[in-house]
Amino acid sequence: MQLKLALPKGRLMAPTGELLRSAGLELTGYDEQSRSYRPQCRDMPGLFTKVFHEKDIPIQVAIGNYDLGICGREWVEELLAKYPSSAVVKVRDLGYGRSDLYVVTSRSDGLSTLDVLRTRAGAVSIASEYPNLAEQFALRHRLKRFKVFPLWGSAAAYPPENADLALVAQSPDTPLYPWLVPLSHVLRSSACLVAHRNSWRSRDLSCLLARLCAVSSVTESDHTPAGRADGPGTPAVSRAAWDSSVRLALPDGHQREPTLACLRKAGIHIRDNSVDPGRPGISVPGVSVKVIRPQDMPLQVANGNLDLAITGDDWLYDHLCRFPTSPVRKILGLGFGRVRVVAVVSGEMPVDSPQDLRDLLRSGRLGRLRVASEYCNIADKYARDNHLSPYRLVPTWGASEAFLPEDADVLIENTQTGRTLAQHGLKIIDTILESTGCLIGGTTGPDTASAREVVDSLVRALEQGMAED
Amino acid sequence: METQRCKGSRDLLPEDMAKFRHIEHVFRSSCLGWGYEEIRTPTLEYLHLFTSVGTLTPEMLSRVYSFLDWDGWSGERVVLRPDGTIPAARLYIENLAGVRPARLFYVENVFTFEETGRESRERWQCGAEIVGSARPLADVELIALALDVLDKLGIQGVRLHLSHAGVIASLLARLGLTSAEQAEAFNRILAGNSESLRDLIGAAPQLKDAVSLLFEVKGESAGYLRNLQALLGRPSPDPDLDASMNDFIAIADSLTGLRHEYEIDIATGKGFEYYTGIIFRFYLDGRVLGGGGRYDGLVPLLGGGAVPASGFALRIDRLMEHIAAWEEVKPSVLVRSEVDGTAVVPLCFEVAALLRKAGHAVELDQGYTGPTAHRWVVSLQGTAASPRFAVADRASGATVQADSPAQVVEAVGKCS
Fold this sequence. Notes:
The complex is a heterodimer.
Chain A: E1 3-8, H1 13-22, E2 27-28, E3 40-41, E4 47-52, H2 57-62, E5 68-72, H3 73-82, E6 88-93, E7 99-106, H4 115-118, E8 124-128, H5 131-140, E9 146-150, E10 165-170, E11 180-189, E12 191-196, H6 197-202, H7 206-215, H8 239-243, E13 246-251, H9 256-265, E14 270-271, E15 281-282, E16 287-292, H10 297-302, E17 308-312, H11 313-322, E18 328-333, E19 339-346, H12 354-363, E20 369-373, H13 376-385, E21 391-395, E22 410-415, H14 419-423, E23 426-435, E24 437-442, H15 449-468
Parallel strand pairs in A: 1-4, 1-5, 8-9, 8-10, 13-16, 13-17, 20-21, 20-22
Antiparallel strand pairs in A: 2-3, 5-12, 6-12, 7-10, 7-11, 14-15, 17-24, 18-24, 19-22, 19-23
Helix pairs in contact in A: 3-5, 9-15, 11-13
Chain B: H1 14-33, E1 37-38, E2 44-46, H2 58-61, E3 66-67, E4 78-80, H3 85-96, E5 102-111, E6 122-131, H4 136-152, E7 159-164, H5 165-173, H6 179-190, H7 195-200, H8 208-216, H9 222-232, H10 239-257, E8 263-264, E9 278-284, E10 287-294, H11 298-301, E11 309-315, H12 316-322, E12 333-337, H13 345-357, E13 362-364, E14 376-382, E15 387-393, E16 398-402, H14 405-412
Parallel strand pairs in B: 1-5, 7-8, 12-13, 12-14
Antiparallel strand pairs in B: 2-4, 3-4, 5-6, 6-11, 7-9, 9-10, 10-11, 14-15, 15-16
């Protein structure tokens, strides 16, 4: 009998590997250096393991692709908040990877309780990587009117200027910014063993469960008060200063360095801010800068929180697939970070084009197409436009190549050269989009003439910088 | 065959639709006869319409279908209408403010997630609202209208249950609870959990006897309410409670005068926080057919000023299970051609059109292979150049010949 276990990458990878070793299960290829998504376990031959982003694990377990999974409890609760009848059972708290979810506000907003927000006439905005828990929080606390910004990350950077509240995870390693005040404790989380409901009901999982439970120790404790880093009680940019300037977002992660290089060529310099890394300084007067995820930028431009942002064509297109009339436009292509967004299948699959996929579905040899992607909206539109019916979308949060072939049939993914895809035994059957870094802004531009002049001068500088390249 | 219908959804087949339309017809004609005007609100509404305290309970809100619209980049969600009353109140504020009273009715679907998929997640309901009248008589009128509809549908044995949100709220206020605690206790009581109130009684032992009686002995007359009022007024009178009790008594007295029987059951009205006065529900065989109540706080909450309102809704799916008779239009005449070729097609259509004009439901034969249920079968015979018709009356077994479409209509006769 094969038993399928989904394992987390990222922050829980090392302690989970340690737990498995203690349980007498030595996994080859389950570490940060490994490029394999399928660690091998010689100690238990019937055990199949695969590595996912931990946010994907409750979904993979709930739909029955895996009997068991290990992930942070917050992701289980995030799934159950929206889909309470998901077939996922919380089996055991594994006691490591502790964090607490708090709803926080900026000290400068002067809120000490939720009562003021409850009766406020305007909408209360909540930024979070946990949009379902954020909505549940708003409903439970009877906020009269609210809006939730679903984010890929950096939620703590949103209050006060871009959101009234943020729902953030806080652990001893990641204290809150000193200007953030916790208003409500939402959840205590730690690594959690979860099971697919039907597997739990009808399969014998005891061989693995007994080993894991024998070595995992759970110490119950109340949540500790949110820790705050030392520093000033206000963010580097006040809400008033932010609102009166041209608001520019720069990407974090691997797009950060090429973006800074591109700005340097345009004579624009970014100054690091050690106290508030999300709000660096800039050499251009009248501009305020914020560092957030490129995935989140188009939505923030659309809802008026930003005037300009440097993101990628891929994320702009994904946003426009979801909101076709969104008031966001590409102002300038910046040329760096060139990738192709492609449709990919397993090398074993007898298809070389979307037409072949369609034929395969029509022949009945494939009952339902599972389309996995971080670009959920592009993938949805691609499947619709290519009449790949019936299909089911599998949203992913990283490590997407791991999904093929067991857990998805098609992957919509970006690639620079295609080599990594080939190394994983995958083949490209279609190119959807060529993407580079780009400057985006609102379709109508800033309200004031002076702000429009600042935007124009920034755009001219970037154009000149590229021309000299 | 694998079913492709969404879990928790329901197909309405021809017989179901005949029942549905019959109920709709009875409801519409009753409402029109009582002076109500029909409205229809959009299926999509903003979620925030339903989220304030005093609208839907958190339990109901956790089951709504909410999502971001195609232009939802602001992050504000829309919802598939989970309730008919709140959109009707919004419609009133935006379009009919100043009309006092506005008598409105609607036939609409509402959407609520249901886990097992055995109950339909889309439910149709017939609703009626009186906006702009605070009189107990308005509540009595709504109850009487609903009972009139149920009677006209031939549904017997309906039991009317009454409660009063004002009475519950006044009792909770006397227990010294915060507004949030009062709201939570209110929902638990309406959900039938009377234990929760008993637990709270420790804070106000003087209420113990009256509250115990309120939950343990269900009443059947205004006299029961007067008895309770006498108990609850001690040791000191409570003006809010008195006002609510007087309102409750006035409604109960009027219903007795109209010979409507009822049961006073304080725990009735699950899921709706917006009730402020009378709450009523109609039960049959232990299942709820519908209900309603007074919601004087809702229009103010939605920004429409101090406008009182009251209303009810009946569940069409439940009514469909209980109606014994409904009108079903089946085609009574079948027109068929025994002559090959297209030359006679216009003639068949002409005969069918004349028969429809005379009031018959007529079907053109598109290839029935077995016996049919039509009373008359008109067969076009002869040739295209010289057609004639055989009109068979299956009820009598007689067949007559006709030479023209007009003679066919004469043979079949006018539809009574």
